[in-house]
Design brief:
Helix content: 25-40%
Order of helices and strands: HEEEHEH
Radius of gyration: 15 Å
Number of domains: 1
CATH architecture: 2-Layer Sandwich
Largest sheet: 4 strands, mixed
CATH class: Alpha Beta
CATH topology: Nucleotidyltransferase, domain 5
Strand content: 15-25%
Strand order of the largest sheet: 3-2-1-4
Number of strands: 4
Structural class: alpha+beta
Number of helices: 3
Amino acid sequence: MDKLSLKQKQFFRRRLRIKNKIRKNTERLRLCISRSNKNFYAQIIDDRKGHTLVALSTLSKEFEGDKNRGNIESAKKLGKLLAERAVAQGIKTVVFDRNGYLYHGKIKAFADAARENGLEF
């Protein structure tokens, strides 16, 4: 880790801080997100069993017509679809694992859309 930039070091420290808080709360499922410049990924994980219960990304068939899948509108759509699928499976409360990303822009839009459609975190 000696050759990392300051920005990378801050990201990894922020990521570890978030993961340590989430590990303490094992009775709830974890909503983990990841993003790249072009796509957005989200999944709901049961850490006790080690299973992914719901997974969705902007690469799935619901997003085939979208030209740009890495923007805020796609994040909102993904949050809505993921929340609907989770509620259909009986999942109401989760822990939001933002994976070191700052809570603004795409991450905030995703979280707000998921909350509006039935998920609690």
